[in-house]
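Changelog excerpt

This revision adds worked examples to the README so contributors can see how folded entries look when concatenated. The first example is reproduced verbatim below.
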Amino acid sequence: MRKGIFITFEGNDGSGKTTVSKQVYEALAKQGYDLLYTREPGGIEIAEQIRKVILNPENTAMDARTEALLYAASRRQHLVERILPALAEGRIVLCDRFVDSSLAYQGVGRGLGIDAVQRINDFAIEGCMPDATIFLSVPLAVGLARVTQRGNLDRLDQENYAFHERVASGYEQVTQCFAQRIHVIDASRSPKEVIQDALETCQRIITSIWK
């Protein structure tokens, strides 16, 4: 049996990663690939319960380290219950967010430090990093405008502009640190162009691993 492939999608809020990742999943499924599509935080029942706590707008008193630990706990359960079994079956896993989000949001956005948040997550994931990551890059102002337009803002959506600026800076650092794994796509273009670019990138990743 050939090895499974783990591909994640990342991006600032409003980058369109959920829409793009779902469209890529549907296109690859039509091509006959055996896939699993999932998301973070969440993906399975326990992790979804943790997601509700993290993103609840009423939980304004949440400490930054508590937030980082909750994300790691959600990630751990999601990994062992859903992602690892799929990879063991030789499937392709597409995941909306993973460790890179924590490095950007909690490591830089919350000021905990990328190395500190990486250590928390190293304990949680035991070395299971993505084979490749699609990062959807969009200007911060554009992304935040999209978030505002869609409404129903969660606790992180409601953070101030300075926080989102720090997160954007965090993603810049992460994409530089993991340049070999992360494929940056310009997400300021039309949805059709972005989806096609992401699909072709995923196809190249799959081909290179399963060559």
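The second example, added in the same revision:
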Amino acid sequence: MKHGKKYRNALTKYDVTKFYSVDEACQLVKDLHYVNFDETVELSVSLKLEKNQTMRDTLVFPHQFTAEKRVLVFCREDRVKEALDAGATYAGSTEYIDKVKGGWTEFDVAVATPDMMKDVGRLGMVLGRKGLMPNPKTGTVTPDIVKAINELKKGRTEFRADKGGVVHIPVGKVSMDVKDTAENVQTFLAELRRKKPADAKMGFVRSVSLSSTMGPGVWIDYKEDA
């Protein structure tokens, strides 16, 4: 891939082969910012996953940086008021299932009560393709819709490893205070340690890097047993 002059110039401002502390990496990504919009800061973690291992979960960062999510709750009529009072943007059953069947997806995340999944599961062609299908693993299929909505409103973020075993997760904006971005990074790395498969061997985390949307990556010195 051919990069522009500003990108190449950014590469001259630091040692691209060095591994930096989380604080140093966050400061570098901020200093290397060269475009005129508020870039997202993304963490990329390469994992050594065996065939029977996966990495998928959610977490709430201590410092939020995304716009408030529009939440759709699939629930029975007697729980619609509960969902709306908790902060859902939309809540209902048949009417929203029909709208989604028609291609409507003007929401950022969908939550469903377990008794709705038989019907919601039929929306796979629409929701699955857009990554919006409720899933118990991410806490979006649950009888406790108030808790789910509250966490989503606080910025609960889903993460998962791709086919190559790499997790890409946004952790902040370049406009944020470096300490806040660093704390978000540390929060995710701590979560990764907790979710490490019991049968995973040393070397589970192959590499960790941080970058902005348009900027170059900075290697992070990650200690797996930290």
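Reviewer comment on example two: The helical segments are 5-11, 22-31, 80-86, 94-101, 117-120, 124-127, 145-153, 178-194. Residues 161 and 181 are 21 Å apart (CA to CA).
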